[in-house]
Specification:
By secondary structure, this protein is mainly beta. The protein contains no helices and eleven strands. Helix content is 0%, strand content 52%. It is globular, with a radius of gyration of 13 Å.
């Protein structure tokens, strides 16, 4: 019933920028937390950022603070992740997901998109 679709991934040079989008159907973002996660080759999935629609809270993993910004367009039912000053080590598949609690732990999330690849090149 719930569908999340990521888009905006691609190949970008180190130091460049990219904006990912997460569009939802089947529910409204207004009552939920939307999180961004990433999984790099050979590594565990990691929480990157979230936005809690119930209270407006945003949060980020320490490694991306000051470079990534999460935002939303409620009319479009879309959440964005603006990624600036990209480094080689952020290369990963990026997923968005929906949760009923404010958390960057993946077990808190009920619905997931299929991911979009972000590749940073030198």
């Amino acid at each position: 019933e719930v569908q999340l679709v990521e888009s905006g991934g691609g190949l970008v040079q180190a130091g460049g920028s990219l904006r990912l989008s997460c569009s939802a159907s089947g529910f409204s973002f207004d009552d939920w937390t939307i999180g961004w996660f990433r999984q790099a080759p050979g590594k565990e999935r990691e929480g990157v950022s979230l936005i809690n629609y119930s209270d407006g809270t945003t949060d980020y993993v320490d490694s991306v603070k000051g470079r990534f910004t999460i935002s939303s367009d409620n009319a479009k039912n879309t959440v964005y992740l603006q990624m600036n000053s990209l480094k080689l080590e952020v290369t990963a598949v990026y997923f968005c997901a929906a949760a009923g609690v404010e958390s960057l732990y993946e077990d808190a999330y009920d619905s997931w998109g299929q991911g979009t690849q972000v590749t940073v090149s030198s």
